[in-house]
Amino acid sequence: MSGDEDVDVTQYRSIHPSFPHETTADQFFSEDQFESYRKLGQHIVRISLRGTQRGDHPVAIAEKLADVLAPSGCSSEAFLTHTKTLDRIWERFRETPTLHPFFDELMRQTIAPLAAGQQAQAAPAGAMSNEETTIALELIQLMENVYLDLRLDDFWSHPDNRGWAILFMRWARSPLFRQVWEKTRRTFGIRFEYFCEARLGLPRDKPIVRG
């Protein structure tokens, strides 16, 4: 029950609180009981298959259902908190002309994909301004916060996290971003460092520095 069912179904539920999980020990359903289950089933199918067209391939329908019906991996509050932080960072980029080239580099889509085991190169040392260094550190901290709150180790491929995954992969290809990561990665969590190597191709200490 999701609260948007027909009146007949909600009325039956108000009289029978265990609906739609009534015992099946009694196989002789009353007419209104049977009709309530039928209408609820019809409602579930209509809502689940909304947007599909006659003739759509069953595999395509199943893929869409897997995406749109996937249970959330985190609370909406945690997700929205991080998007607000990202908005504030974007505003800094918009308002600071000297950061525009760094923003273009972070969001570039034409960077060639890395081969298996290959790592992108960092920018030459000393090529960053204090503004660029500071905002890169904010981006890395946001990444760690999102990683922890959204449990990206477990939910990297969750449909709701696609935008974060794409953003992080783009950022990790930026030479300027990688230069800051090279200098500061020891100031972030060890699990986060492993994650950044595995998912984003960012280098980590070998062996890991633990203190």
Overview of the molecule:
The chain is 58% helix and 0% strand. The chain is mainly α. α4 (76-95) packs antiparallel against α6 and α6 packs across α9. It is elongated, with a radius of gyration of 25 Å.
Descriptive tags:
single chain, 211 residues, mainly alpha, 10 helices, 58% helix, elongated
Output the structural class. Answer: mainly alpha
Helix content: 55-70%
How many individual helices?
10
Count of distinct strands: 0
Q: Give the overall pLDDT as a whole number.
A: 87
Order of helices and strands: HHHHHHHHHH
* Principal-axes shape call: elongated
Main sheet specs: none
Break the fold down into its secondary structure elements and pairings.
Elements (H helix, E strand, L loop, with lengths): L6 H9 L15 H18 L9 H11 L7 H20 L4 H7 L23 H20 L2 H4 L6 H12 L1 H10 L5 H11 L11
Helix pairs in contact: 4-6, 6-9
Give a summary of the structure in a few sentences.
The protein is mostly helical and 211 residues long. 58% of the residues lie in helices and 0% in strands.
